[in-house]
Amino acid sequence: MMTMEDIKSTIGDYCTAAEVAVEECGFDGVEVHGGNGYLPEQFLSSNINVRIDTYGGSPEKRCNFVLELMDGLAEAVGEENTASRLSPFGLYNQTRGAERLATWSHLCKELKKNHPQISYVSFIEPRYEQVHSTTEKDAFLASWGLAAVDLSFFRTIFGTTPFFSAGGWHDQNWQGEIESGRYSALLFGRWFISNPDLVRRLGQGLPLRMYERDRFYGPFPDKERGYTDYAAWGEEKDKGVTRIGEVVGGVS
Prior knowledge:
This protein is α/β, with parallel strands linked by helices.
């Protein structure tokens, strides 16, 4: 278990990294990944965080690490240069905590109050999961009494703060989401790997090229394959790239 000194030191490490990124490397800003079972989410999850001190024991106290971290980053590089990724309903890396709405609603209200000029917030969709099917994830949500949950509750909390959504978006389901006002932006990850011209393809209704999941994590001797060798639309024949060519009809 981290000591109080460990916690302060770790927050300091985050802040140092942010300063180097922004001031020395020219980054526009930094995003704290507070989801996927990484350290910030470990503090937020009641099954992982079993502390009974300032940093655990209640939804409010489990938020303190993340809140202090964002305070430190805002001071280090300016709150307008900070952002956060959150997954209130995630299961990845054994995050099975209870009191989801109580915990993340407190966190979000405090973030909005303390840092109204934060650059943006990024949320993972409730029904998207890296290691479970949609059916399995629905069963988890139902067991928590959250069968109909969506991100609108958090969208309301953050008001005018740019609000991004990630998880499960593809060429068949993204249309109209921004126009509806639900989100400020949609985030794509895997599809950008295999479609370097993803924005053009989506905008023009062009089919997406399937990615190679088994090439996501290396190392590989032929490291370019499945990473930097995907061609833009119209260039496939010119580059001789014919090994995939699958048109997307759903999520893989």
